[in-house]
Design a protein that fits this description.
The chain is an alpha+beta fold. About 25% of the residues lie in helices and about 30% in strands.
Length: about 475
């Protein structure tokens, strides 16, 4: 299959795809310099792009190709993959459930989407049904809905057919190359369906005739599939067509270090390359600088990284509590009060009154404080709850994928099973059944579940 890669994981993933016998197309200049390989301009079957928060990648394209590509992105037990219920280019009959300042929230059936008012011709209000297409899918761990559009298009690499338009448009600043491409299109002998206009991306001006022909053929096939699905009145909420699939892959700490090894086989790579780059844009640039100087040997420099980019004492971080089904729950913001010599961060949160603490059965009261200690790379972390007078109300030890301490957030995926110690000193293990359910649902692999249970057993003995 043809794969297009972009983002901070590109070098490592390019090596994986090439070693598996796949073709990487539309490669960037740095990738062309690092690999002794031919990189063509043929249309891609699948694209792998780093997410905006750098925590993983989105894999989009032909459903079979997406499935094969995702299978190559799962090198470690702390890698998770979730298929999107609203993949890019999918068409839905949607019902407006809420209007916000700049757009409307839409019920798609198995998901919600956001329709900007500027992306639909007619005025819409709550209760209206409208036909929409997903223009941007959204990872399940981000606080954002997929973005929708009132128009319909069929994409295939550099060729896009737009329903309701006509003629040929070339989206390029090079007018001469655009005119040449528009003229060459007639030589392909492929006519778009009636009522669909063709838009060539700038990359098409550098593609050969074979690549252009393949792209246009695919776009026509997608358009014909969409056209047949669009017959009939709007009947919301329902899915009408999904010419492409989108799967979101979240990399854990072990996965990032495994990707370092793939990259190191190609070009000098410092320890923790992808872990540091995932932290922030500034950290990513610093990694490039260090590697350009040639200073990249040794262990992962957690202390240097956190001293430079955070978090340090006085900073505030979110507790990003990931779930195996792809959701992210923010447990709150905590102040970093200390960092031990071993890299352990002490986090302090003031609790609000109301309810009880999970599994402890103790009331949550005004003045309570939660003290959490997290260490980079550890498969668990403890939280001690104390009342306003400092008396311990209980300890909750969360078992999770290896903790990562980023400048703005502590991140991990919760593995359900936990160990608690009540105010009377009783130690109990909880939520084994939830872990079993997650394994049965295919959300947690057997090796990962085995690790979680092993950690929980060790914690029981230690407490």
């Amino acid at each position: 299959m043809n794969v297009r890669c972009r983002g901070i994981y590109t070098t490592a993933l390019t090596r994986r795809f090439l070693d598996a016998g796949h073709d990487v197309v539309s490669a960037s200049d740095p990738i062309r310099e690092r690999f002794d390989a031919d990189f063509g301009t043929d249309p891609h079957d699948v694209t792998v792009e780093t997410t905006d928060d750098r925590q993983g990648v989105g894999v989009a394209g032909a459903p079979d190709a997406v499935s094969r590509a995702v299978g190559m992105l799962d090198p470690t037990r702390d890698t998770f993959a979730w298929a999107s219920p609203a993949p890019r280019d999918a068409v839905f009959d949607a019902r407006i459930t809420e209007t916000l300042g700049s757009g409307a929230v839409c019920d798609l059936g198995d998901a919600e989407g956001f329709l900007p008012f500027g992306s639909v011709d007619a005025h819409v209000e709550v209760g209206d049904d409208v036909r929409v297409q997903v223009s941007e899918s959204a990872a399940p761990w981000v606080d954002r809905r997929p973005v929708l559009d009132g128009g319909v298009c069929a994409r295939a690499g550099p060729a896009t057919l737009v329903r309701g338009e006509s003629g040929i448009t070339v989206d390029s600043y090079d007018d001469e190359a655009g005119r040449e491409l528009a003229g060459m299109t007639d030589l392909l002998g492929i006519d778009p369906p009636d009522g669909w206009g063709l838009v060539w991306a700038d990359a098409a001006t550098e593609a050969d005739m074979g690549a252009l022909e393949t792209a246009l053929k695919r776009a026509v096939e997608h358009a014909e599939t969409l056209e047949s699905a669009l017959d009939g009145p709007v009947d919301a909420p329902r899915s009408l067509a999904a010419p492409a699939a989108t799967t979101w892959v979240w990399f854990g700490r072990e996965a990032r270090f495994a990707l370092d090894e793939d990259r190191r086989a190609v070009t000098p790579t410092m320890t923790g390359h992808h872990r540091i780059k995932a932290a922030s844009t500034e950290a990513s640039r610093a990694v490039d600088f260090v590697e350009a100087l040639g200073s990249h040997d040794g262990d992962f420099a957690f202390e240097a990284v956190t001293d430079t980019f955070g978090p340090v004492a006085g900073d505030h971080v979110r507790l990003d509590h990931g779930k195996p089904d792809g959701r992210r729950i923010v447990l709150g913001r905590a102040e970093v009060t200390d960092r031990d010599a071993d890299g352990t961060l002490t986090l302090r949160r003031e609790m609000t009154a109301g309810g009880t603490y999970d599994a402890l059965g103790v009331d949550r009261e005004a003045g309570d404080v939660a003290i959490t200690k997290v260490r980079e790379g550890r498969w668990w972390y403890p939280t001690v709850y104390r009342d306003a007078d400092g008396a311990r109300k209980g300890t909750y030890v969360n078992v999770c994928t290896p903790v990562e301490c980023f400048p703005d957030a502590v991140r991990y995926v919760d593995l359900h099973v936990d160990v608690v110690k009540g105010p009377d000193g009783e130690v109990r293990r909880v939520d084994d059944d939830e872990l079993d359910d997650a394994v049965g649902a295919g959300q947690v692999s057997a090796p990962l579940a085995e690790k979680a249970r092993s950690v929980a057993t060790s914690l029981e003995g230690a407490l």
